[in-house]
Amino acid sequence: MTSATRAGLLAAALLATAGCAGARYAVRADHAHHPISFSPALPDADGRTLRLGEELEPLGSFRFSRTPVGILYGATGTTVELSEELDRRVDAARGEGVVNLSLAVSNCATGYFFPLNLLPILPGCQVVEVSGVVVARRRSAPVAFEPPTRTSAASRDGATRPADEGR
After folding, report:
1. 95: number of Cβ within 10 Å
2. For 146, left (φ over 0), alpha (ψ -120 to 50), or beta?
3. DSSP 151
4. Which residue of 17, 63, 66, 157 is most buried, as measured by CB atoms within 10 A?
5. How many of the other CB atoms lie within 10 Å of CB of 132?
6. How far apart are CA 136 and CA 78, in angstroms?
7. Band of the pLDDT at 93, cuts 50, 70, 90?
8. Which of 6-20, 21-35, 132-146 has the largest mean confidence?
9. Predicted TM-score of the model (pTM)
10. Window from 55-59, 118-122, 148-152 with minimum mean pLDDT
11. Cβ neighbours, 10 Å, residue 67
């Protein structure tokens, strides 16, 4: 094997393994007490779909992050549990659920230390950004309702009087 071939194979191996540091994890919210949706809608108890901006009104948005860590190229795994934090955010806003839940994942600092990230003992990590909108069912504004009174034609002085008055 020539030295040029060896150098080419070595460069290919380095490129193939670059960025091996990382984390393996599962994102869960199995124990949340409030409904959560990646879409802008939630089901109600009767199975009807309630939509943000229609039957649902936003009470506020939130953003938080978690950083799971792995070792041995992500061979060790963990779970990023969101239930408690999501319930806390919904309760704080006095809401009924979360819509437009979004997860964004990015490398943390250890992913950029080439060639150190080739070492299987270097911990790797990912930053998981969680965002969403806390919602509640839209409460229609109370309408002041006064039943109309029956009136007769205007009297000579411009006042109205009930139609059955004087009969």
Report:
1. 21
2. beta
3. B
4. 66
5. 24
6. 32
7. very high
8. 21-35
9. 0.64
10. 148-152
11. 12
d(CA 149, CA 56): 37
Alpha-carbon span 132 to 37, nearest angstrom: 9
pLDDT at 130: 93
Cβ contact 85:129 at 8 Å: no
What is the residue-wise DSSP string for 60-105? EEEEEEE--EE-TTTTSEEEEE-HHHHHHHHHHTT-SEEEEEEEEE
Per the CB < 8 A criterion, the answer to whether 2 and 102 are in contact is no
30 in Cβ contact with 83 (< 8 Å): yes
What tokens does 88 get?
């806390």
Residue 147 confidence (pLDDT) above 60: no
Residues 70-88: what's their mean pLDDT? 80
